[in-house]
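Tutorial, part two.
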Amino acid sequence: MPSMPSHAHDNRAAPPDHYDALYGAFRWEVPARFNMAQVCLHRWADDPDQSQALAVIEDGPTLTRPRRYRYADLAAEANRLSNALRLLGVQRGDRVAIVLPQRVETAVAYMAVLQMGAVAVPLSQLFGPEALEYRLLDSAADDPAVLIYTSGTIGNPKGALMPHRALMDALLPTLYFGRPIVAWRGRFDPLEAFALLQRHRVTHTFLFPTALKAMMKAKPRPRRRWRLRLQAIMSAGEAVGDAVFAWCRDELGVAVNEMFGQTEINYVVGNCARLWPARPGSMGRAYPGHRVALLDDAGQPVPPGTVGEVAVHRRVLRLREAARARERAAAA
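Running the prediction step on this input gives:
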């Protein structure tokens, strides 16, 4: 473990805390009709001022140089794939499995499926034949956009059907805001990760705690070698830990925003160091628009420092669960 700088941090200006104001002022604006491919791709590709903006940068050890795709390029490829899927008989509401690594074809596949009104079913390349078969046979869809399966830690994996209004993870939010995203076609390597951040002037990134630990161990003083422009780091899956949190703050120049969520609901708790303080060991606060609490066995909130069950208000939409509830009601 690398040693940490000995200088005290008590003299640092306290970060702003706008949480209460943000949470209190937040209001959901859910349109009656919404398509992710339209807002994440075509509104940029159809705009003469934005169509040539960079959408995806593809890099990797097998490429002689990075490949750059603009929003107009992405739209053209997505339209071609949509036409090919239609010729294969894919219709609105049909499920389409996507088994791809980080590469431009992944973005093309999602946009092509979503703009058709079909349902994307992302599946891991690590799944064996039985795991793939189960999900494909089980994934009959009710409506909308993406069907994501839980890990199956307890019982069989369960499909969570997400509507187009539930933008998720890194790819779709990045495209939603018209920004470029970097796709790395290769295995994770801590030194290459630093080089990638410098080469493409990455400002925002998601890195698992294990990746941050590997980077800290490989290069305790990264800014002596690389010029980094990081503004925010998000991390989830396990606790980052005090040592990694301090290293990111002192050596990368940013506080890690830890998050918590589930397959069925995405991230609902987290930090945003620019808007409210991020503390080591804390997974954050309920994101504006969500109500999250710890409850006891009687369904009552527990006091601070007490173990409880995580409860999320049902404002979070899960279409497949709603469809099954309607089926049960109709059969009663």
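The mean pLDDT is 85. In part three we will examine how such features are distributed along the chain.
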